[in-house]
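Subgroup meeting minutes
Present: P.N., E.W., G.H.
Scribe: E.W.

1. P.N. recapped why we're keeping a running log of single-chain structure predictions: easier to compare across weeks, and new members can see raw inputs and outputs side by side.
2. G.H. added today's entry (298 aa).
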Amino acid sequence: MTLLVERLADGLTNGFVYALMALALVVVFRASSTVNFAQAEMALFTTYLAWWMTTKGASIWLALIAACIVGFIIGAVTERTLIRPMEKRGEMPTLLMLVALFTALNSIDGLIWGLDYHSMDGLFPGGIDDYISVAGARLYFEAIGVWVAAIVLLAVVFAAINKTRLGLRMRAAADNPTSAALSGINVGRIYTIGWGGAAVLGSIAGILIAPISAQQLSLATMFPVLIYGSAAAIIGGLNSLGGAVIGGLSLGLAESLLTGYVDLIGPQMHQTTALAVMVIVLLFRPTGLFGSRLEERV
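Output recorded in log:
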């Protein structure tokens, strides 16, 4: 029982981070019908920035705010200067641009901050004695903090999209850009805000996962998060906010339980397993479990 609780806790911790990354991908897709393959590298850059600020004496919370601001700027500028002009040339040039941006940002991180692994302070207490005992298992405050922060952030995002005027405009622009523009909505500005907001979600996800990652903070920290976040978004449905969250939590729990109890999979095969699940879902339901097919009237 103790081992099961610990694995469930680990699965929830990773799952919430995957859900945040998946939600960021869905926000971008709903805004501009584009899968941002550079999402994780944007997050990695701002996570490095936060780490660097803490080495200069800034608190981790101040570093988080700065990372979110910089992340929003990166996302907004990327959409306005790179993605929007490239989308006029078609989907493939846009995809290649995002892959190039992925590589460029990773290289810039290595150039600025080096190739070494870095230990990063977390937002919540992470000492060896900072835990509560549940059924004999140790639930560390750092992990519980990740759960609470993710739940609050997810609630804010859902409320902003479903309960605010900006959210209404975002949904209108996503459903029918032409009609939204004719009704007076600045669709381009909505797309820019969507990309910036998604980058903020990624930044927070990076700062949450880096202190507890087995790889610590390195050039490879966010790549597994991108794999799982992408799989979660596709499994849940690229235009479904709720599907992204369910997909992320499901993959996090499945990763922890399968690697712990199925010897054939082990820690070396868990990413392959996530991709296999994604392929199976796409074969039987191309729009994802909770996604809907977009229909265009002519």
